């Protein structure tokens, strides 16, 4: 037996054990929820079958980091499955409009979607918690709540009535607080401010008297340039630069209190999922984890590179919101999240789990990560 054969056999044995262990893990995650158990429907008879699936995105395929990540995800799945699972990726609008991605997966028009759960908060209260909520968990905390806390099981429970299985896939890290044409000195400066800020963040600034404006990314530049809006949040230095935002506003604020760790999602049609043999399910789930890590790494890196670029260009004024401003926004955010929790029993359950997890997680972060940051600056 050659060394190569030996190592291949060992690898197969390892993968088999890994598949068995992950299968058991998934059953545990599904336990106690109304979500259909992930592996119960896996079809061993389909082991040699080839699958051709379609994935629709809420952003174009050319979207830096995000589009790149999903194309790479599809490629990884194809290679790791030995060509048994082939995924054709469609950017926003190619097959379905971006805001119809969820319904396309739900109705089985396509097997997969890639988006952010907070887009669906209008029809599914509680969905926002699985992307990011104002003053909520950062990217590490989201990962921890989803995979080690109750997060993923709750997310599966939330989407189960829609016949969709969610899988975390991508994270932007903490975003920036946005571009402003004038300085923010007090909470009063939000009064009458027309700001592009979707989702829960928009409801928070509305409580401060601002007028949140909902426009897609590609419309931010012209709206800010012509003064139709006074301020806008998008993502972070890299993508904001690509949109041209530094050319139309001078003040760039942190922190992105409204999106402290935005998690992206892979949506899987449950019936399609249950038709997959167990090894292909495992490949999909693990490729999503790998893609998630890589997208997060790219976001952290490219935002740092473009922050440096903005500093060198010398036009942008970097500011942090004054503490009294963030304090007041935090109080408004608490009010808005309580309103979300009041919308349905499952939203209340998600809210309670998230808040309890955050309290415990952050108490330890204070002792560990934040102590380290303080030590670095000492
Ligand atoms: Ca954003």
**Structural class, from secondary structure content?**
alpha/beta
Give every kind of bound small molecule, once each: calcium ion
CATH architecture of the domain at 7-31 and 50-171 and 262-302: 3-Layer(aba) Sandwich
Please give the alpha-carbon distance between the first and last residues.
Answer: 59 Å
Give the SSE order as H and E letters.
HEHEHEHHEEEHEHEHEEHHEHHH
> Helix amount, in percent?
40-55%
Low-confidence stretches: 1-41
Strand order of the largest sheet: 7-6-8-5-9-11
Name of the CATH homologous superfamily of the domain at 7-31 and 50-171 and 262-302: Bacterial extracellular solute-binding protein, family 7
CATH topology of the domain at 7-31 and 50-171 and 262-302, what is it called?
D-Maltodextrin-Binding Protein, domain 2
Mean pLDDT: 90
Shape: globular
Largest sheet: 6 strands, mixed
β-sheet strand percentage: 5-15%
SS summary, helix count: 13
Assign the CATH class of the domain at 7-31 and 50-171 and 262-302. Alpha Beta
Could you tell me the number of beta strands? 11
Based on CA atoms alone, the radius of gyration comes out at 22 Å
SSE inventory with pairings:
Elements: H1 3-30, E1 51-57, H2 66-80, E2 85-90, H3 101-106, E3 112-115, H4 139-147, H5 151-159, E4 164-171, E5 178-180, E6 194-196, H6 199-207, E7 211-213, H7 220-225, E8 231-232, H8 237-243, E9 251-254, E10 263-269, H9 270-274, H10 278-313, E11 317-320, H11 323-341, H12 345-367, H13 369-377
Parallel strand pairs: 1-2, 1-3, 6-7, 6-8, 9-11
Antiparallel strand pairs: 3-10, 4-10, 5-8, 5-9
Helix pairs in contact: 2-10, 4-5, 5-12, 6-11, 8-10, 11-12, 12-13
The site of calcium ion has 5 residues, from loops.
């Amino acid at each position: 037996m050659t060394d190569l054969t030996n190592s291949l056999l060992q690898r197969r044995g390892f993968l088999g054990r890994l598949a068995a262990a992950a299968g058991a893990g998934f059953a545990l995650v599904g336990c106690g929820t109304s979500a259909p158990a992930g592996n119960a429907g896996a079809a061993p008879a389909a082991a040699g079958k080839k699958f051709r699936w379609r994935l629709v995105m809420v952003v174009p395929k050319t979207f830096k980091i995000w589009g790149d990540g999903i194309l790479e995800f599809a490629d990884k799945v194809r290679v790791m499955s030995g060509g048994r699972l082939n995924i054709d990726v469609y950017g926003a609008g190619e097959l379905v409009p971006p805001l119809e991605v969820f319904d396309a997966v739900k109705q089985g028009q396509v097997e997969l979607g890639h988006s952010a759960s907070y887009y669906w908060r209008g029809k599914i209260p509680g969905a926002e918690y699985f992307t990011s909520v104002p003053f909520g968990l950062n990217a590490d905390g989201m990962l921890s709540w989803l995979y080690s806390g109750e997060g993923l099981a709750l997310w599966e429970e939330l989407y189960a009535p829609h016949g969709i299985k969610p899988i975390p896939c991508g994270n932007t890290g903490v975003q920036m607080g946005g571009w402003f044409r004038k300085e923010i000195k007090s909470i009063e400066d939000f009064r009458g401010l027309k700001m592009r800020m979707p989702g829960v963040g928009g409801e928070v600034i509305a409580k401060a008297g601002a007028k949140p404006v909902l426009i897609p990314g590609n419309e931010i530049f012209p709206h800010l340039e012509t003064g139709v809006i006074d301020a806008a949040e998008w993502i972070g230095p890299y993508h904001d630069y690509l949109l041209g935002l530094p050319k139309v506003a001078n003040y760039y604020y942190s922190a992105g209190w409204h999106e402290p760790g935005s998690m992206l999602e892979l949506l899987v049609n449950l019936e399609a999922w249950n038709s997959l043999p167990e090894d292909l399910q495992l490949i999909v789930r693990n490729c999503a984890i790998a893609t998630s890590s890589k997208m997060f790494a790219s976001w952290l890196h490219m935002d740092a590179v473009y922050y440096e670029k903005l500093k060198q260009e010398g036009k942008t004024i970097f500011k942090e919101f004054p503490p009294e401003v963030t304090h007041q926004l935090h109080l408004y955010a608490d009010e808005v999240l309580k309103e979300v929790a009041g919308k349905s029993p499952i939203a209340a359950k998600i809210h309670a789990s998230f808040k309890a997890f955050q309290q415990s997680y952050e108490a330890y972060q204070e002792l560990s990560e934040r102590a380290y940051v303080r030590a670095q600056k000492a």
